[in-house]
Design brief:
Elements lengths: L1 E6 L4 E8 L3 E9 L1 H5 L6 H22 L9 E7 L3 H18 L3 E5 H12 L7 E6 L4 E8 L2 E7 L5 H11 L7 H10 L22 H16 L6 H27 L3 E5 L6 H14 L2 E3 L11 H12 L20
Parallel strand pairs: 1-4, 4-5, 6-9, 9-10
Antiparallel strand pairs: 1-2, 2-3, 6-7, 7-8
Helix pairs in contact: 2-3, 4-10, 5-7, 5-8, 6-8, 8-9
């Protein structure tokens, strides 16, 4: 079964064709990073306009790269939630029109479920149930994967997401947007013991995250140094900050795994590309004898292959949408 996936939740216009939820036949991504970099982050209105301009060509190329026409596609899967509402509307509208015109089934896909599904493409032996840490620019979740289409969120951020925290800290220490990869590179040069940053907790919710206080702590450190005319070592701050984020993400995931009885762990989302997080999670899983699955770097960021993959499982589960499908900016993974 060949699924055409369409993704437009933020600033990547993407389309892909995936066969049987495992084999990528094409995977096309048109990124807007350079345009948004001058503003220090994604400008929603610009993102929506660029999606409108790019989506036809991206889908056309995805079909061509797969040596297919729309007639060879079994279903169209599209990200409908969560994300920037204007950006989501472009992808959802295009997918609805394409499905109606071609007579193909339309499958609505949750963006976070797509990130989780990226592991099925890379690891054909991974099967539910397992525990997944999802960390990205907009989300930080610990999720029980009960089945391919059934999820239980046991931990989530109460304020900033991990990726958002990376971007804001990176900006204040002088790195361009998106700052995650620059912090990662700087951390390799720095001393991760140079600064001791807080590990915020949420009373009564041991698996929940809170990164706002950590972000503020780093920003205050830099601003205080500037006011006193004291130079900062960006590499040392990056290394200490990255280590702290990794310890928070991995520590809560290990706690959840131990208390909920999971020995199979997965990682997903844009922050899953971070070497500090990957290394610490691997080390902690090895200590406990847990099996760990991580997506390749090419599937960590937003892409449509992951949407097509999850769309395959949603299709098998009987999920369908018609022309009334609407984009939703905020939607819990448990409510799909």
């Amino acid at each position: 079964m060949k699924i055409l996936g369409i993704e437009s939740s933020c600033d990547e216009t993407a389309a892909a064709v995936v066969e049987d939820g495992k084999t990528i036949l094409s995977n096309v991504v048109s990124t807007q990073i350079e345009e948004h970099r001058k503003y220090g982050g994604v400008v929603p209105e610009i993102a929506s306009r660029r999606h409108s301009e790019n989506i036809y060509g991206v889908v056309e190329k995805a079909l061509a790269d797969a040596n297919l026409t729309i007639d060879g596609i079994d279903a169209v899967a599209v990200t409908y939630a969560p994300g920037l509402i204007g950006a989501l509307l472009v992808g959802t509208g295009f997918a609805k029109g394409l499905a109606m015109a071609s007579g193909k089934p339309l499958v609505p896909v949750h963006h976070i479920a797509g990130h989780i599904a990226s592991n099925y493409i890379a690891h054909h032996d991974l099967k539910p149930p397992y525990l997944c840490l999802v960390a990205s620019g907009g989300h930080s979740h610990i999720v029980e994967i009960l089945d391919y289409t059934k999820f239980r969120v046991v931990g989530r951020t109460r304020d900033d997401a991990a990726g958002e925290c990376f971007d804001k800290v990176g900006r204040v220490i002088g790195f361009p947007y998106p700052a995650g990869k620059y912090i990662d590179e700087a951390a390799k040069r720095g001393d991760d013991k140079a600064y001791k940053f807080p590990h915020p907790t949420v009373n009564g919710s041991p698996y929940d995250f809170s990164f706002s206080g950590l972000k503020t702590n780093v920003i205050n450190l830099v601003h205080n140094a500037e006011q006193k005319g004291i130079g900062i070592n960006a590499d040392n701050i990056a290394a200490s900050f990255q280590k702290t984020v990794a310890e928070i993400l991995v520590g809560k995931t290990m706690l959840a795994a131990e208390e909920l009885g999971y020995k199979t762990i997965a990682l997903a989302g844009g922050v899953s590309a971070n070497t500090g997080v990957r290394s610490l999670l691997q080390s902690e899983c090895d200590k406990r004898g847990y099996s760990l699955y991580m997506p390749p770097l090419s599937l960590c960021g937003d892409n449509a292959a992951m949407i097509a993959c999850q769309g395959y499982y949603d299709y098998l589960d009987g999920k369908r949408a018609d022309e009334s499908l609407n984009a939703i900016a905020t939607l819990s993974l448990e409510n799909i």
